[in-house]
Each structure stands twice: as C-alpha cells, then as structure tokens.
User: What shape does this take?
Amino acid sequence: MHRNGNSVRLRLDIGYDGTDFHGWAAQPGLRTVQGELESALAVVLRLSEQFVALTVGGRTDAGVHARGQVAHIDVPHELADGLTERRLNGVLRRGAPDIAVHAVREVPSVFDARFSALRRRYEYRVRDPRVRRDPLTARFTADVSRPIDPALLQVASDELLGLNDFTSFCKAREGATAIRELIQFDWSRADDGVFVARLEADAYCHSMVRSLVGAVVATASGRIGITELVELREARARTSRFTVMPAHGLSLEEISYPADADLAARAALTRAKRDPLEN
Amino acid sequence: MHRNGNSVRLRLDIGYDGTDFHGWAAQPGLRTVQGELESALAVVLRLSEQFVALTVGGRTDAGVHARGQVAHIDVPHELADGLTERRLNGVLRRGAPDIAVHAVREVPSVFDARFSALRRRYEYRVRDPRVRRDPLTARFTADVSRPIDPALLQVASDELLGLNDFTSFCKAREGATAIRELIQFDWSRADDGVFVARLEADAYCHSMVRSLVGAVVATASGRIGITELVELREARARTSRFTVMPAHGLSLEEISYPADADLAARAALTRAKRDPLEN
Assistant: This one.
C-alpha cells in the first residue's frame, strides 16, 4: 500500500451504468470504468496518468453496474484540495456521462477501499415472462424465459445463506478458497413487478452472485428441486444444472467499512485471511 | 376513420425508451417509434408498408418515453391471427429493442386509440442537487440545479388542478383551444430520492406536461412565488418566468378508455368538442 507523508488518501464514492464498459479494471485499448476515471482524475489534478492509480472496493465485470462503488487514491498533498466531486463530474460529463462521482473525501491513510471492506451488497433484477418488458429498465434487468414461483425464490435462497464453501458457484481460480459468508439473500418485487434479489456477503469469489441467482432462479422456475440445490451446493464442484446469469442484471449497491478507529485492525485481518486477488 | 367489413381492428399496448427516437410520429429519414413499429408490422403481416398505418393515443415528442402507449391498426381479416405480440417483439428485438409490444388484441371497430381515450396519465422524474445522480436512471430523469422544497411542490401543483385555460402552459397553435381538465397532479419520492410527478388529464395541449412541471419546479425552488404562479396561470399567455422541462424526464404511463359499450358515444363527443389535431 502506498503511504507517504506528502500525500493524502481520498475516498471516492462512485456510480456507473456498466453497459458500455469492459468492466472496472483498466485494460489497454478498452473502455473501462477505471480507465475513464483515471483519465478524468489526471485532467483535474493536471498529472500524467501514470501517477494516477485507483484501488477499488469491488471489481465489477464487463456489463455490471454500480450505485455504491468505492475506490481510493493517493494524491500529493498540495493537489488534494483541487480534487472535488464537482470538478471530476464536470470532466466526466463530457467524456463519460455514464459515470457519476457521488463524493470525494479525505480518509485516514490506513483506509483501503479493498482491504478495509467489511461487506459488499449487490442487487440483481430478473424479469420473467409474466412481467411486462420495460425498455426503460431493460439495460439493468435480466430476462428469463420460464415463469418464476415467487415463494420458491426465498425458500431456495435460504438454503445458500451462511458460512459456506461456494466452490459450486465460483469460476475456478487456482489456489483460491471459495469459503465466504453469505449474510443476506432476500427477494422482493419492484413496483414494476420485477424480482429483485439483495445479496450481502463479506466477499465473493468470481461470478458468485450471478451463479447464486442462476441456481435460485432455476429452482424457482422448476428446473431443479430444493433437494438437488442442496446437493449441488454440497458437491463443491461446478455444474451445468444452472447458469451464470447475465452481467447486466447486476449492480453493486453498497460497500460497508468499519469506523476509522478500527480500520488498521481490519486491513491486517483481511490480508492474513484470504488470497488478496479475490474480492 | 378506416372501417371495412373485411378488416379487423387491433389494439396495441406499447412501451419504449424514447432516447433514440425523433418522437412518435413517422418522419421521412428519421428514426421514429411509429416508423419502426410500422416496419415491424409490415414484416410480420407480409404487407407493403404503405398498407400499414397506426393511429396513436398519445403522440409523444422526441425523447419522451412511454410505458402505456396505445395505438390501433386495421388489418385484413385473414392476416389478423398471424399478428401476435410474440412475432412482433421477435422482429422488434432485432431492429428496435427499445420498443416493446405488451399486448395485441382485437377491439370493436368503433374503438379509436385517439378519439376514444378518456384520460392520459404521465409521469415526470426530477432530480435536484441533493439527490445522487444515478447513471442507470439518468436516461429518464431530468436534473435541475436548484434545491427543491418538497412541501412546496404539492402546494404549487394544487393551484393548477381542475378545468382551466392552460394557454400559459401551451406552445401556441393557431385556432386551438387550451381548455383542459387536469384531474391529478401529485408528487412522490421514488426509492432513490427522485421527485416523481403524476399527472392525469382528459387531454393536453402541446408541451403542457413539461410546462406545468417547469412552473411547479420553479415555484418549489423559490424562483417564483405561489401568488405569481396563480397570476401566470390567469394571464393565459406564454411567459419566460419558467421553462419547459426537458423531454427525457417524461413518460406516458397510461391511457384510459371506456368500456366497449360506451365507445361510440365517446368518439362522437370527443370529435365534436375539440380540435382533432390536439391530443
């Protein structure tokens, strides 16, 4: 972690429409959220882009949206006051109106957008054929072809809660553990009838939210039974019995952090516990 | 009105994201909702486009959205069964995924999407600077720069309710009357904090909803007082004291029609009462 007596750590709270991005992480030649943000930061700070590096709380895949993304950046002390959300949004509005910066504020240097995070909350929106397709929300709502039994959604989700080995719901990554604590997996209906899943966990392995929703939707539309769902979870192996849901139904809604006084302890704990490549 | 013993009248219920359309009404060389829909209908019906003509319940301007648009079309009897929402959406998905057809159904030949309509309901979404800008909903939410006093929104709207001469809120059109009945003009907050106006009237003169919302927002953000708002209404003349709000905050939500038995009487009444160019 970068720490320097002459620099200040700033926290950025960010939202974006992920439709036209190749995900968060900067990639040469591709339009990414990190890439656009770092370009805008370089303009506002009048720095070369090589001196502008964001660390993110929840890396999102291509097409995934965010309303509550968090990142941090270290900037030279004398430049920090000039970095306001107003200036940043002014630059973004021209080149990347699909990104909004909600807040920019100074945080203790021990704050780490990634390693300090306690929990990440996501939402996933699903429309079944009985719900009208609304072109205004189609950018952030996934369609499924089979009717969903609303009662079964919650019954199935409850089977996946708690501290589990989620290997059955992860894209394999060598050497990484898939033990996570799923704290919340609740369903509700939006005003327009769309099914909305709300998931919260300490962290996620790759594609975990979209796999969990895929398994639950398969159960609630009668393709797999509750007993099989539990067996699939216990098998701790990838399966083709359910699919990874599409990216555009998913949005990162909130990342929770400890109070400032507890930040250092939290960061040390997270690093000791888990493969740092996962989040 | 086209009526023919060999044709069947069909009602279409339609939604669209108006962002990428030059409004409802077909215009040569421009992408319009009517144009895209008539093209798709021609494909499904295997007819030349010149034989495909939609009549709409609420013509929307460029950029205005719809969740509850209604149109009718007369099709040869032997082709009617082949015109299903499934086939129509199949064609639209390829060329115009920003349009959805919710339902296609046969109606009495006296049903007229435009002249049978009893009431039209619109929604307008406004974000003030105290509400987070959400890129996911920015396509259908208008921004205003001054903070809005929520209590004043409803007080101001109440002054505009009822049977009024709305000339102060209409783009002038020669020979047309601006007497309309505004039945509802209520405000609520969406989950994300955005202010949502719900307006219902028998009909509207041109740009009336966006002007009414502009006047009320100007009042609720302190630019004009309640007394002046009433004076502006009574003046029955266009004013520059408030602005016509942008198109993209507006959505046509619902058009109400009488029961089948009352359709003929309603159509005759509407035609007698008002300039047929207005709706």
In short: Chain B touches chain A through 20 residues (CB under 8 Å).
